[in-house]
Design brief:
Elements: E1 24-28, E2 41-45, E3 50-57, E4 63-70, E5 75-77, E6 91-95, E7 100-107, E8 113-120, E9 125-128, E10 141-145, E11 150-158, E12 161-169, E13 174-177, E14 190-194, E15 199-203, E16 213-216, E17 221-223, E18 237-241, E19 246-250, E20 263-266, E21 271-274, E22 287-291, E23 296-303, E24 308-315, E25 320-321, E26 336-340, E27 345-349, E28 360-363, E29 368-371, E30 384-388, E31 393-399, E32 407-413, E33 418-421, E34 430-431, E35 434-438, E36 443-447, E37 450-451, E38 454-455, E39 459-462, E40 467-470, E41 484-487, E42 492-500, E43 503-511, E44 516-519, E45 528-529, E46 532-536, E47 541-549, E48 552-560, E49 565-568, E50 582-586, E51 591-595, E52 608-613, E53 618-623, E54 627-628, E55 631-632, E56 634-637, E57 648-654, E58 662-667, E59 672-673, E60 676-677, E61 680-681, E62 691-692, E63 698-701, E64 709-714, E65 725-733, E66 742-751
Antiparallel strand pairs: 1-52, 2-3, 3-4, 4-5, 6-7, 7-8, 8-9, 10-11, 11-12, 12-13, 14-15, 15-16, 16-17, 18-19, 19-20, 20-21, 22-23, 23-24, 24-25, 26-27, 27-28, 28-29, 30-31, 31-32, 32-33, 34-37, 35-36, 36-39, 37-38, 39-40, 41-42, 42-43, 43-44, 45-47, 46-47, 47-48, 48-49, 50-51, 51-52, 53-66, ...
Length: 755
Amino acid sequence: MLLSRTWIPVSLLLGAALALPAQVAWTATQKPLPLGRQRHVMASDLQRNKMLLFGGSDGSGNVLGDTWEWDGTQWTKLAPAASPPGRENAAMAFDFTRARLVLFGGADRYGNDLQDHWEWTGTNWVAMNPAVRPVARRGHALGFDLAHGKLVLFGGDAAGVALDDTWEWDGTNWTQRTPVTKPSARYGHSMTYDPNLGKVLLFGNLLSMVPDTWTWDGTNWTKLAPAQSPPGRGNAGLVWDFALARVVLFGGANSAWVGYDDTWEWNGTNWLARAPVVKPPGRYAPGLAFDAGRGRTLLFGGTTFFSTLADTWVWDGAAWTQPAGANSPSPRSYIATTYDSGRGRTVMFGGDDGWVLDETWEWDGTGWTMRTPTTVPFPRWYSALAYDSARGRCVLFGGNTNIGQWLSDTWEWDGTNWTKFAPAVDPGQRYAQGMTFDKVRNKTILFGGHTNAGISDQTWEWDGTAWTLRSPASKPSGRFGTPLVYDERRDRVVLFGGLDMSGRLNDTWEWDGTTWTSKITPTAPLPRYEHGLTYDRARGLVVLVGGDGDSGLLSDVWEYDGSTWTQRSPAGKAPGARSLHHLVYDSARSMVLLVDGVDANQNALSEVWEYGPTRPAAFASYAPGCAGSAGVAVLGARAGGLPGLSGTLDLDLTPVPASALTVLGIGISKTSWGSFTLPLDLGFLNMPGCALATSFEASVGFTGTGAARRLSLPIPALSNLLGGTFYSQAFVTDSAANGLGLIVSNAAAGTIGSR
């Protein structure tokens, strides 16, 4: 009674093992997003209801030349046949008359001012070559004068000289205007069209910080005298919001290069300060444009001076919100990451994107969200983070600062805020240590790292109140750049590799709560450090990816079952070679996640990849059991004990009477068994409240005595079993339970997956 896609664990399984396809695969899950940047240009293509972003500079000062489009839901990187050279501090506006976006000037990667004129047709960039054009410049502003059908340019910086000239573009020629009155020479100002006034509006001045407001009527500039104005600033975002019928201003820099986080609206007469409860962090040089398709003002990026931003925000006139899946951390190295299983979030803290960071980010399986706690740890890189599942806290320790000061502080994240602890004793100043949480002993384990005394071989434990230095009889050599992971199935902390005074290592060690044991394996990954390591709870395997090897960066994948390392060849496009990435296990999605890293060209990455079985195994209850003298016996799979090919199905059954006989019934149906319809009420057998919920084609006994029983069933590596479903229910003798002296557990459906 064996169906071709149903597994029955008896010794007479028929058929030979066939060649199996790749059982694991990589999938890129983080949508590509623009790099964090400042001084980029962004404007609405009102003909196509899309937003266009171009250029700017990243956190390392690299000038960018990429083109991105926002459709109201996500960013898409475009690949036009022609494109302007990379630049920052350019200006761009939509030409209503010709339905094109016009880009002029800026500064190139060498700091040279540009004089070129480009237009976006909706599919491509086109270089324009008018006979006359404004002089090369940066920091100028553009706004379309809808009343006169002209694009207006004012001011800027030409080789260090502030400008006060006014130009108009009619679609064919640039013409310099000579108004009687005009704003003072300036750069870093902003312009947009105000339909209420029928004039172009100008605000801001990075040169003098004078908070003056001007309008252009096609002939002359007029200085306005509103009752109140935003404080003086430069490099602010300014745009006309068609839905609100107001001009919206956000951010900008003050004279100390501190970014404002205020929101202002211009109603045609006065500036009005808005006070949203949630708002973007302060910044200057962002992109701000109106998303006509969605009727909202959109903000992207900018800089805090200390870091460039890659966040997307939407303003609806009352509140700022972040669109789901539209944000990501800037590419950064030396992050600290862990998985918060209580809230189903991957938590990231700190790192270095050109600036040392104090940001807290969370990944929910589809997108990143930057959290804004009231209290945050000091900015740091190469710290360690582990999730304490007993107390529902992410524990952060140590790291390095932007001035090379090593840290020895202990912090915990509860999903809302950070709390600093002041234990009497701590592991001392260090960075590059490994850290994980021991779920049986409820301790956070820390090993190694760089300390003032050199490379450490110390083992420390944190119980939520105090740090304790352990003194094991044996231990690994002092090392750094090696992650730790807790193997739930075997109750061991696993360490692999790292860098010590002799070089890169490829040894495997295990911590049992008392001592470290060196594990000699038949095969092992190449020596490395700064690799990724995590425990795949569904498959019961430790997973290792990449790292820094003797011959360069690595991209290989290995798995450890407690005795052997096995190299895997996953299907799908794989992440490139890298180091300083992090692996976590996302228990909500039963997938290993790879986060960020640094590639062979020393570029920090902003990526999330999923790694896991091509066909996930499962074991889930679908029908209840009935009560016995010890309670209701619950049948379930142990951590890492799901039915995967060439693995084992590991089951627990508890509670049962100490003297009970326990048998697992296995079948191929949950709807019928012979002439019986399932579930079948067993009251007619003097088993009131009990029901048979699976057919009964095979049986096997549990092992052990006492209230808890176990069963381990090997799964053959037969390709025709992949994806097959079976049903199971335990039978427990219990003379005190009912007239028959027998009860049943819950029934569970199993799916044989890849491993």
